[in-house]
């Protein structure tokens, strides 16, 4: 029996473009941050975000990754990359 080894190919990893901060916020974070569920800071309300931003973006990002208060780690976005989380934070705090 002869097999053509060129027929069986290893799967190729397809690079996907990271989602924008707006896409992540709309698809994942809007349920809490649009209306401030459980004290979540609301989109576009600078006074909600100012105390968090004053602590520094590194600490702010760490809180987002680890979870804080009622917010679970990554705000339930377990598939979000670090870049997507950063983009979401930047979008929410505008």
TrEMBL record:
* Taxonomy, superkingdom: Bacteria
The UniProt GO MF terms for this protein read: electron transfer activity; heme binding; iron ion binding
The answer, when asked if Metal-binding is one of the entry's keywords, is: yes
- Cytochrome c domain: residues covered: 18-92
The entry's keywords: Electron transport, Heme, Iron, Metal-binding, Transport
In Swiss-Prot or TrEMBL terms, this protein is called Cytochrome c5 family protein
Please name the taxonomic classification of the source: Bacteria, Pseudomonadati, Pseudomonadota, Gammaproteobacteria, Candidatus Pseudothioglobaceae
């Amino acid at each position: 029996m002869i097999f053509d080894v060129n027929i069986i190919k290893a799967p190729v990893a397809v690079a996907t473009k990271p989602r924008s901060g707006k896409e992540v916020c709309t698809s994942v974070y809007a349920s809490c941050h649009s209306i401030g569920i459980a004290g979540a800071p609301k989109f576009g309300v600078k006074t909600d975000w100012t105390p968090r931003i004053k602590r520094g973006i590194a600490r702010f990002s760490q809180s987002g990754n680890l979870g804080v208060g009622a917010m679970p780690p990554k705000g339930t976005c377990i598939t979000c990359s670090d870049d997507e989380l950063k983009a979401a934070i930047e979008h929410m705090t505008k």
